[in-house]
Structures are given as structure tokens and as C-alpha cells.
Amino acid sequence: EATASALLLRAGLALLAWPVYLLSFLGIWEPFCKKVFFPFFLEKISGAHEKKSKKYKQELFRNLPDFRGPSGELRLLEIGTGSGSNFQFYPAGCKVTCSDINPNFQEGLSRNMKKNQHLHYEQFLVAAGEDLRQVPSGSVDAVVCTLVLCSVQSVSSTLREVLRVLRPGGAFYFLEHVAAEHSSWTYFWQQVCYPTWKLVFAGCCLTRELWKNLEEAKFSELKIQHISVALPWMPIEPHIVGYGVK
Length: 246
Description:
GO terms for molecular function: S-adenosylmethionine-dependent methyltransferase activity. The chain is an alpha/beta fold. Helix content is 40%, strand content 22%.
């Protein structure tokens, strides 16, 4: 639990961010954040994050072609596609279904689609990770999710949906920021920033121990690596990367 000094600093941070809290109270912040601020901010930060995480993503997605279906095609569903920064890592001819709870990333998305014409884009679904009912059970070979599990309402429901839509033998790929080691300064700052961060960044939770959710989900095989992706002044350095097989 947050210590007294963390709580004191947390209150100080909330005071600094009072205009956002006020706008939120008036019901103005959430729609503005969803439509304007978050897509804009995410585009900016994903550029920096992309540079730092590129080598991990190249390594992560290298074995995607191994999960092609019996027909030889690779049908991939991406949860929380955002502006499509992962497209560059998918193998040629891959059939991609994009989904995001927020439909306001269109500008960056179409830019990345134009850049990555080696893929077939099937459809774009406006859907939450916990509710992929538009995707039939067992219909995809791979599901990808990067920097999304921090802000879903329920991690376990999302993973249940992932396992439902995957065909047997299909794979779930992830790269996510997670809670730091509890005795570390990073974790202290995650505690301090938590409520204000969550409000400002569209529900993003800093202290989720996502490796535990993944271990509890029913994957037949699970590979998780703990890595560090440092961004200046951001309390999201600890990450996990890997994949699970249904």
C-alpha cells in the first residue's frame, strides 16, 4: 500500500493537476482526452517508446510466421491497435483485423497502413479487449496486444477473450509496462503518480502485475521476459514481453 510520504506527494500532484480534475468533474475531460489529447499524446510518446522497444519487438514477432494456419495464411487480430505502430513487424501477406475501444486514431492509423502495404487489412472493429464478440471463436492464428493491458477494465476477462478467439495452437503476443519491484524508487513514484496518471492517460494503471494474470490464464506454453524500457520522466520503465500458446 502507498506510504504516508507517497500519499502526501500524491495529494501535491493532484493539486498541480487540479484543472484536469475539475474538467473531469464537469464531464469535459474524458471526451476531450479520448478524442484529442490521448491520440495526440500517444502518437508523440509511441515514437519515443518505439525507438527503445524496437529491438524487443523485432525479436518478439520473429516467429509469427510459425503460427500460420493449416491454409498457410496468418490471420492476426490486434487489440488496441492505436495508430498501428506494430504493422511494420508483421510478415508479408498477413491478414490483419484491427480493434480499438477508441476510434479516434484514424489519422495515424491510415498513415501506418499506407506505409505497410505488405499486409492485408481485413476490418477495423471498435471494441474493448473484454468484449470481442464480433470475432468468432477459434478464428485467428495470432492475437497481439502492446501497451493495452494497463488500461483494460479487466485483465482476466481480456485474456479469456484472447483464448476464445485463438485457434488451438495459436499464439498471444504481448509487450506491456508493469509494476516495479515493491522495494524500488520506481514503485514509490508509481504509487505517487497512480491516480493522476490514470485520470490524465485514459485509465492507464501503473501498478498492474500482469505477469501474474498471464500465469493464471490457461496457456499451454508461456514465455515471459522482464525487460526495462526507460523513457525520461516516465514511471513506466519495467516491462514484460513474450507470448503464450493456446
